[in-house]
């Protein structure tokens, strides 16, 4: 069996590795010239680490990550809205580190760089076409014309600075949030999300200065980070998600990862769900009598999960960046955390 995978990101590389281990022939087509050199941190929850273990790269990721257990949701003044128990643990790894680790486990000839795909090219031959090409998926455009990303109404800023922190925190203010996590070595991973109407329009925004002003009234841990920011080290983007109403499968084409269920970052599970897609698809194909039944099995298992995660992430995105009724919101979140919701 032969698969063409469009997209050399986390999902594409993980699926290529899984299929090769199951005896498939695989070609990954990636439009970029090489792996990215930068990238902020990703949380690998236990299910994602189990997926990486099944691919044979779990230990390599652990050696290059920071293990964190628990954390806290905070008000702007630093008081706790809700604590995240130690049972909620994750390995924090830089995106480019995870990509390099997956790529190193593949034969070099498995990936074709500088190889974009467009809907006009049609089915590339072989037995299976996989759209692992992200939120603006060309493969999705080919099989589901008119289905695309939706705006969440929030704008994200993120980056990595020098320094050390020992805990994970997310501070919810009026209209925005600010997160801080360890980044490994001498690094701090930070991220912010604000209601888009609160962010000045235009491409020439001084993001560092704007964030310092916006979070001026926040507690010292947030101000210590924003005071060090420089505009050239900040990634800014409008947040989007994707919610498919139908199957992830169309004939011999299947969508995984952000192509199928891009979600707001608030759950911290986008990369995790992509890895779980890759392993589930390879397992379903290996455990089925034919390609069609394997694809149907994958869709039955993963589509309900993807749809649920997109919905939950969108709700949490709105709640975390709310501008009104903050005491009510905080009380509900605190109560939910106490009762294990």
Give a structural overview:
- With 341 residues, this protein is α/β, with parallel strands linked by helices.
- It has 2 domains: 2-66 and 94-150 and 240-320, FAD/NAD(P)-binding domain, CATH 3.50.50.60; 152-238 and 323-338, D-Amino Acid Oxidase, Chain A, domain 2, CATH 3.30.9.
- The chain has 11 helices and 14 strands.
- The strands form 2 sheets. Strands 3-5-4-9-10-11-8-12 form an 8-stranded mixed β-sheet. It has a 6-stranded mixed β-sheet with strand order 6-2-1-7-14-13.
- The mean pLDDT is 92.
- This is FAD-dependent monooxygenase.
Produce a short descriptive summary.
With 341 residues, the protein is α/β, with parallel strands linked by helices.
How would you state the average pLDDT, rounded? Answer: 92
CATH homologous superfamily caption of the largest domain? FAD/NAD(P)-binding domain
Task: Please state roughly what percent of the residues sit in beta strands, choosing from under 5%, 5-15%, 15-25%, 25-35%, 35-45% or over 45%.
Answer: 25-35%
The CA-CA distance between the termini, in Å, is 44 Å
**Morphology:** globular
- In the CATH hierarchy, the third-tier topology of the largest domain is known as FAD/NAD(P)-binding domain
Point out poorly predicted stretches: none
Please count the helical segments.
Answer: 11
CATH architecture of the largest domain: 3-Layer(bba) Sandwich
What is the strand arrangement across the widest sheet?
3-5-4-9-10-11-8-12
What order do the SSEs take from the amino end to the carboxyl end, as H and E?
EHEEHHEEHEEHEEEEHHEEEHHHH
Say what oligomer this is.
single chain
Strand elements, count: 14
Share of residues in helices: 25-40%
Decide which structural class fits the backbone.
alpha/beta
Taking the sheet with the most strands, its summary is: 8 strands, mixed
CATH class of the largest domain: Alpha Beta
Count of separate structural domains: 2
Keywords: Monooxygenase, Oxidoreductase
InterPro entries: FAD-bd, FAD-dep_Monooxygenase_BioMet, FAD/NAD-bd_sf
Organism: Arthrobacter pullicola
GO molecular function: monooxygenase activity
């Amino acid at each position: 069996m032969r698969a063409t995978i469009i997209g050399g990101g986390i999902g594409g590389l993980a699926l290529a590795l899984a299929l090769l281990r199951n005896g498939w022939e695989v070609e990954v087509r990636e439009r970029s010239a090489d792996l990215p050199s930068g990238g902020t941190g990703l949380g690998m929850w236990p299910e994602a680490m189990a997926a990486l273990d099944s691919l044979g790269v779990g230990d390599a990721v652990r050696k290059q990550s920071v293990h964190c257990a628990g954390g806290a949701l905070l008000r702007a003044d630093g008081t706790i809205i809700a604590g995240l128990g130690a049972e909620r643990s994750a390995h924090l790894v830089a995106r480019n580190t995870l990509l390099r680790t997956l790529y190193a486990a593949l034969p070099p000839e498995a990936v074709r760089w500088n190889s974009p795909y467009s809907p006009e090219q049609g089915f590339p031959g072989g037995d299976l076409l996989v759209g692992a090409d992200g939120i603006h998926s060309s493969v999705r455009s080919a099989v589901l014309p008119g289905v695309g990303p939706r705006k969440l109404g929030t704008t994200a800023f993120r980056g990595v600075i020098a320094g050390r922190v020992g805990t994970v925190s997310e501070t919810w203010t009026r209209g925005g949030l600010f997160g801080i996590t360890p980044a490994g070595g001498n690094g701090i991973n930070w991220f912010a999300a604000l209601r888009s109407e609160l962010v000045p329009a235009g491409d020439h925004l001084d993001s560092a200065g704007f964030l310092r002003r916006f979070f001026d009234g926040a507690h010292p841990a947030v101000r210590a980070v924003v005071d060090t920011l420089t505009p050239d080290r900040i990634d800014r983007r409008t947040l989007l998600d994707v919610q498919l109403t139908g199957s992830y499968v169309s004939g011999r084409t299947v969508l995984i990862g952000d192509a199928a269920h891009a979600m707001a970052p608030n759950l911290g599970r986008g990369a995790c769900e992509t890895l779980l897609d890759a392993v589930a698809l390879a397992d379903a194909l290996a455990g089925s009598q034919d390609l069609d039944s394997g694809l149907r099995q994958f869709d039955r298992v993963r589509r309900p999960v993807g749809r649920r995660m997109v919905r939950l992430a969108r709700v949490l995105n709105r709640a975390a960046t709310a501008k009104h009724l903050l005491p009510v919101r905080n009380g509900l979140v605190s109560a939910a955390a106490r009762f294990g919701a």
